[in-house]
Amino acid sequence: MKPAAREAARLLSGAGLAAALLLPTAVTAHTAPRATLPAADGKKGQELPAMPSALDADAACTAPSRERAKKQDWSRQRLDLDRTHGHGVGAGVTVALVDTGVAPDADGLEGRVTADGTAAEDCVGHGTFLAGLIAGTDGRLSGVAPGARILALRGTDTRGRADSALVATAVREATEAGADVIAVTVALPRRDRELTRAVAEARRAGAVVVAAATPDPPARGGTDTIPPRVYWPAGEPGVLSVADMLPGGLRPERALPTTGIDLAAPGAGVVSGGPRGDGHYLGAGASVAAAYAAGAAAVVRAAHPDDSPEAVAHRLTATAYPADIPQLDAYAAVTTVLGGPDAPPAGERAAERVAVRDTSDADAATERATLLTLLGSALVLAVLWAAFTLPRARARGWRPARAGDGATTKD
With 90 as the cut, is the pLDDT of residue 169 above it? Predict the structure, then answer.
């Protein structure tokens, strides 16, 4: 290689080194949000089938899973269920679950599910999955309230599509059955008069009504073009509206934007069982978070049987981890003694209903800005390197510098 070519190669190599020192940071900044997606065990993840919330019109029923989770997932660790169960398991409490139905003989739910008619047929599997989060008895993967009973009610058709008339009927049936907690884990885009009345009747009858703040995100397509809106019955007065969160406390990137949320709970990379077989699935969405909150409400009702529905909801929000959206703390909800000098007055919410900050666009813009800034810095360093070195190389006649040569000395 000629001296001039070698010198040019040295210059490019130096500039490339400067850029290389910065580019890994730029790439990390760009890909970090993807790395925050939770794994089933909070560390390396588990390869398990996904549990859908709905099926295509021509799809077969969800197949049995052939795999079982090897570890307790992050969500149960976050809710501190091992310690929570030392103070209560929801014994004697009935939780009505309004979803796709529940298989009465599902693994971990045997003998504790009441389901009549189509509510006992769960082709989708989603309702059975959620029932396991509320009251399952699957060892380290037990639900929040493994001593509670499940009243299965259908709020969807057989493919998992929510229907306001079905939801209203289900809430009324739950009220007539004397359910202590009613979990509506489907969400409707429009308010329905009959559903509004059914929810009001349930609350007057003494039920704690918990609802998913949003529908689960669609399986196909993005959610960027969907404007923020209130979903129902989560928007009804007195209903505990629950949204899903990642291990870091943020909402998932594809979560539907909404307002009026009372509580956030784990809602991604969550493990539970299904209606057929003893295998496990991974589930996500506000429906999962609402199921966890309903289980916590069941444990609180069992531990504090004289508390009103308003007091139970207050306890769940007052003991939640403080954040933009208060984060469910099942252990604290059961063990905390309320009414101290710093506690909010009884009957008041611990936190105002807050709007979800939809940060996906801002996060993407920040990533792009960070990447461009770091690339620009690398380019500036390359230019400064060249500005410093080229005159000296030219002064040497493009010959390599030798030890002892001055910066501007010719041979």
Answer: yes
At residue 339, the pLDDT reads 73
- Dist CA 410 CA 246 (whole Å): 64
- Whether 402 is covered by a domain: the verdict is no
Q: Is the pLDDT reported for residue 344 higher than 60?
A: no
Rounded (10°) angle between helices 126-135 and 286-303: 30
One domain, residues 141 and 261? yes
> Does residue 61 register a pLDDT over 80?
yes
Q: Which residue has the higher pLDDT, 351 or 319?
A: 319
- For the CA atoms of 197, 203, 205, 211, the dihedral, rounded to the nearest 10 degrees, stands at 90
Q: How many domains does the chain have?
A: 2
Asked if residue 150 belongs to a domain, the reply is: yes
Strand ranges of the sheet holding 263-266, from the earlier edge strand across to the other edge? 113-115, 149-154, 94-99, 181-184, 208-212, 240-245, 263-266
Residue 69 CA to residue 39 CA, distance in Å, equals 12
Annotated active-site positions, please? 99, 126, 287
Lowest mean pLDDT among 156-160, 335-339, 357-361: 357-361
Neighbours of 179 (CB within 10 A): 26
Task: Look up the CATH number of the domain holding residue 99.
Answer: 3.40.50.200
Q: What are phi and psi of 69, to 5 degrees?
A: -65, 145
Residues 230 and 343 grouped into a single domain:
yes
Asked if residue 332 and residue 199 are part of one domain, the reply reads yes
Using pLDDT thresholds of 50, 70 and 90, give the confidence band for residue 20: very low
Residues 96 and 170 in one domain: yes
Whole-number Cα distances in Å, 389 to 233, 379, 393, 397, 401:
69, 15, 6, 13, 11
407 pLDDT above the threshold of 90: no
Q: What angle do CA 391, 396, 400 make, to 5 degrees?
A: 105
Comparing CA positions, the residue from 91, 65, 55, 104 lying closest to residue 271 is 65
162 and 81 in a single domain? The answer is: yes
Distance CA 84, CA 66 (A): 30
Tell me: do 156 and 235 sit in the same domain: yes
Are 14 and 122 in a shared domain?
Answer: no
Domain that holds residue 341: 74-358
Do 186 and 328 lie in one domain? The reply is: yes
pLDDT for position 148: 98
